[in-house]
């Protein structure tokens, strides 16, 4: 079953925003990460952004009905928070190699 090889690196987890976009918290959702649990809003998608399966970060996060998040006072507030937290605050381990940064002239 080669399609299942490295399944964790191919996994994208999404959150449904149609009912929870105002505060970005899924009803009854409890974040696994302690820092995320302490956040006022956006806990569900931010928790997904720092989720490590088998010791490696998932391939990505997404939202269903993200257009609802756009109408908040800060466009895409919860999705931006999650991406920033997962990429900068608590970056994960990836097995693939990222491209080298471009050299500055």
Write up this protein.
- With 105 residues, this protein is of the alpha+beta class.
- The chain has one domain.
- Helix content is 27%, strand content 13%.
- The protein is built from four helices and four strands, in the order βααβββαα.
- It has a two-stranded parallel ribbon. The chain has a two-stranded antiparallel sheet with strand order 2-3.
- α2 packs parallel to α4.
- The mean pLDDT is 81.
Global outline: globular
Question: Structural class from helices and strands?
Answer: alpha+beta
Q: Number of DSSP strands?
A: 4
Helix content: 25-40%
The overall pLDDT average reads: 81
- Largest sheet geometry: 2 strands, parallel
> Helix and strand string, N-terminal first?
EHHEEEHH
In angstroms, what is the radius of gyration? Answer: 15 Å
Classify the beta-strand content into a percent band: 5-15%
Q: Counting H and I runs of at least 4 residues, what is the number of helices?
A: 4
Strand line-up in the sheet with most strands = 1-4
Give the total of domains: 1
Which stretches are low in confidence, meaning pLDDT under 50 for 5 or more residues running?
A: none
End-to-end separation: 46 Å
């Amino acid at each position: 079953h080669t399609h299942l090889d490295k399944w964790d690196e191919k996994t994208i987890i999404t959150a449904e925003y149609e009912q929870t976009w105002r505060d970005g918290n899924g009803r009854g959702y409890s974040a696994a990460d302690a820092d995320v649990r302490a956040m006022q809003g956006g806990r569900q998608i931010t928790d997904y952004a720092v989720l490590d399966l088998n010791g490696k970060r998932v391939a990505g996060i997404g939202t269903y009905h993200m257009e609802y998040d756009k109408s908040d006072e800060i466009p895409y507030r919860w999705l931006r928070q999650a991406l920033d937290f997962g990429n900068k605050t608590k970056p994960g381990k990836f097995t693939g190699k990222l491209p080298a940064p471009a050299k500055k002239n």
